[in-house]
Amino acid sequence: MPIEIRIKMEIFSRMIATALQIAVHQVENTLSLLNGGATIPFISRYRKEATGGLDEVQIGAIKERYDKLTDIAKRKETILKTIEEQGKLTTDLKKRIEACWDATELEDIYLPYKPKRKTRAEVARQKGLEALAIILMSQRENNLSARVRTFIKGEVKDEEDALKGARDIIAEQVSEDERSRNQIRNLFSRQAIITAKVVKGKEEEAAKYKDYFDFSEPLKRCTSHRLLAIRRGEAEGLLKVNISPNDEECAERLERNYVRGNNECSQQVKEAVKDAYKRLLKPSIETEFATLSKEKADEEAIRVFAGNLRQLLLAPPLGQKRVMGIDPGYRTGCKVVCLDAQGNLLHNETIYPHPPKSEHALSSRKLTKLVEQYQIEAIAIGNGTASRETEAFVTGQRYDRKLQVFVVSEDGASIYSASKIAREEFPDYDVTVRGAVSIGRRLMDPLAELVKIEAKSIGVGQYQHDVDQTALKKSLDMTVESCVNSVGVNLNTASRHLLTYVSGLGPALAQNIVDYRAENGAFASRKELMKVPRMGAKAFEQCAGFLRIPGAKNPLDNSAVHPESYAVVEHIAKDMKCTVEELIKNKELRNKIDIKRYVTDKIGLPTLTDIMMELEKPGRDPRQAIKVFEFDKNVKTIDDLKEGMILPGIVTNITNFGCFVDVGIKENGLVHVSQLSREFVSDPTTIVSIHQHVQVKVLNVDMGRKRISMTMILD
Q1: Which of 132, 436, 588, 694 registers the highest number of CB atoms within 10 A of its CB?
Q2: How far apart are CA 128 and CA 580, in angstroms?
Q3: What does the alpha-carbon distance between residue 552 and residue 567 come to, in Å, rounded to a whole number?
Q4: How far is 342 from 440, CA to CA, in rounded Å?
Q5: What does the CA dihedral 219, 295, 652, 383 come to, rounded to 10 degrees?
């Protein structure tokens, strides 16, 4: 590694270690692994000795800070080059820029040297008025009028033109002064108020933003969801938004910095300072705070969305069972599909048990016959239109076996059914059949099915279309990758889309694995992965531990034990005078193992501890077992709700202001954050989780706006 890069890495490591309060060597080792092509899931799972046991969140934070510092370093190079080309780069200025690692401070230092469009101050300088500006700033001239007259020449028409030009130069100097900018920044930080008002004449069009028609709140107290709603209203041209501190106090503070005395020059400086604040400084700092507050709101919204998505992806799976998927409907009927235990489509048809056709008897016969013919073990019903009626119809039939019936979220199913992925999977079927298949597969394995849908379309976020889309995608992709790798993937049944998220693979290698499987049949061992085209040693190292092969000859191939550690497991088995398979099956044998004996310079206690846990239950699924849920049979529409009713429900979405609960009707109810617990709740995710089964009481039903208020405080 070149010495310059090594020095930069050492500086970055120390800064990141201080910021995150972890040891420098942990950061250095983590950055070394990341720069060497290792993924975050791989590092957190298989390189605990190097990182000191850092988890995915900590490793992600190290990477994020490193990327930001790298961006600042690149920006510094550009700034130094630009100032040097102007011939203004002094030794002190260079040292200051090189020592600065704060992006805002860096831009403040650069501002006076930044190439600009033709400003009013620049025009005044070209007229030769800079000397007059210096005279005014000195505030010592007693015969100002006489001095000003000496500048009336060329393009300068009269005294007022000369003074105006000089004031423009002073105003720009004030606005570019670091002390001035920091002073106004501090005032914004402490006392800025965000206000929103409806655009005149658009009251009706902006009805959904009624809460913000005459809104005012300290910016530092404005919550993420309110700020994003206000900004959306502004973007739609329905709200006028302003962020401002106390303007008089700001102007007075600046005047105290620059106005000395009470002569004519001082009055000119005072006027220039006021202009600097109103025309240049305030708009600049307001834009800065608008951007900063939006970034913070985005971060919070993305954090909530990613947390919800993680819970949704890690929802309990039914597992490999023969499932019937039903996409309910009235006029168009209920689309019924029968899937085998691997999720392959065996049969599809449409039944019409509801009005207007009401073919109740025929639908009943078809349903019971399909259950028997395809040996169905569970039924998944979409939670959209006609869901409750379909559930009642399905559970009201007599079958030749015991069946579990589940209501499954349809969020994003329509996105999937019309997607290229769905067309590739089912080119001969229409969107309705594909949607029913997706509903059935979601019951079997939510993770495997939901990865096919763009994460932000799944419907568990707040204002996801208003946040920074690049940051959102990055966060959600990392969340999906983390979930996929924490669960592990069946190498012989996983779709290309699921394999894409496995550590070290990506779209091209995922497709190559699927193609190899189609040509050569099921993989017999992890080692066989090396025969896949373009599967190099690095990619194999990154992905192998997360891929499972049930029924493999080597039982470790169906575990989270990495192939690089097979030798140590075989060594342990040999010492215990048994096979690896016997070691896995025999708890007494495992209890006799002293793992400290197997510590080497390459493998430490953290890895050995993980191996022992894995041998206890190879390939274990970290997800919980699925539970059947039943809504109140007497509540089917919003008209059935009465204040005071206590109902069973399922949490469908969590936001900063509370959670939404499905009680079996079209509209979800809102449990405000203040109604989650008797104790103060700052973060709803500490109380509820996605798909959690809860009891709620109806507080209020707004029939006009179809809004339901609920509480989880029942006694």
Answers
A1: 436
A2: 88
A3: 17
A4: 11
A5: 120
Query: 303 by DSSP, 3-state: which?
Result: helix
Tokens 């985005």 belong to: 298
Name the E strands within 142-237.
Answer: 193-198, 214-218
Q: Which of 514, 450, 170, 121 is nearest to 313 (CA)?
A: 450
Question: Which residue in 4, 23, 20 sits closest to 60, CA to CA?
Answer: 20
The average confidence (pLDDT) of the chain is 93
What does the pLDDT look like over 92-107, one tens digit per residue?
Answer: 999 999 999 999 999 9
Over residues 575-591, the pLDDT tens digits come to 999 999 999 999 999 99
646-655 vs 547-548, strand pairing mode: unpaired
Residue entry with tokens 């235990």: 341
Cβ contacts of residue 630 below 8 Å, gap of 6+? 648
DSSP for 456-468?
GGSS-SSSTTTS-
What pLDDT band is residue 1 in, cutting at 50, 70 and 90? low
Which one-letter DSSP state was computed for residue 529? G
pLDDT of amino acid 174? 96
Q: List, in sequence order, every beta strand (DSSP E) within 271-415.
A: 323-327, 334-339, 345-351, 378-382, 404-408
pTM: 0.85
**Which residues make Cβ contacts (< 8 Å) with residue 91, sequence separation at least 6?**
none
Measured CA to CA, the distance from residue 589 to residue 297 in angstroms comes to 54
3-state secondary structure 59-106: HHHHHHHHHHHHHHHHHHHHHHHHHHHCCCCCHHHHHHHHHCCCHHHH
Return the residue matching tokens 């009642």.
392
Q: How many whole angstroms separate alpha carbon 244 and alpha carbon 198?
A: 18
Residue 412's pLDDT band, with cuts at 50, 70 and 90, is confident
Rg (CA), the chain: 33
